[in-house]
Design brief:
By secondary structure, this protein is of the alpha/beta class. It has one domain: Rossmann fold (3-Layer(aba) Sandwich). 42% of the residues lie in helices and 15% in strands. The chain is built from seven helices and seven strands. Helix 1 crosses helix 7, helix 3 packs parallel to helix 4 and helix 4 runs parallel beside helix 5. The longest helix has 26 residues. The protein is globular. The model has no long low-confidence stretch (mean pLDDT 91).
Amino acid sequence: MGGRNVVVTGGGTGIGRGIVRRFVADGDRVLIVGRRAEVLEELAAEGGDVVPIAGDLTDPRQVEEVTARIVEAAGTVDVLVANAGGSRHGPQETVAQVADHWVATMRQNVLSAVLIEHALRPHLRSPGGRVVVISSSTARHLAGNAAYGASKAALSRWVLALGDEIGGIGGTANAVAPGYVPETELSGVSLAKERVERIASAIGVRRTGRPEDIAEAVHWLASPGAGYVNVTVIETDGGRRRQD
């Protein structure tokens, strides 16, 4: 393909970095958005047509600033990959702590995607625009913390409405739901080899995921060949068989 304008949020590390590299390999211009400018610039230094844009997508004012920079650099957006997000940790003993945890998690995972999509929709290619949202297998499985899983389930539900809305202008919206991918900041500290092997044994393909696995699913959903795929959540977890 090549020659498209692709926006990847949370594109500096982990799965996002893998997605950026996949589109760069196609010759696309990739605009990577994240909170840490130095991380984005490090990835941009690898080469390709990469534009780093720093900003916090939970802040409406910064979303407007980021959008203005995207439009200035690219004009029309062919593909938006809403990948920004993460899991929060900390005490949840008091009501106030629980409230802070849930509100912050929803802002980080849901609001960040909703705001940037809303801001960029007038600039999404019509027809042919693609929105791909990164959900998680924890939206359906009892793993990870409850707030994180609930926020990812909310994204999967949002995609149903979003696909109907932008379907009217010739676009599509879908989600990819990764399973366990160790090479991400979300996974936190490295797990013992035995623990990783136990997780892998509960996966149909008997291995854990890689950022490249998720990037390929995203890349396909953004391709012309997926033009009739809409409001779908693709489970990209290797065939998870049971809770670990």
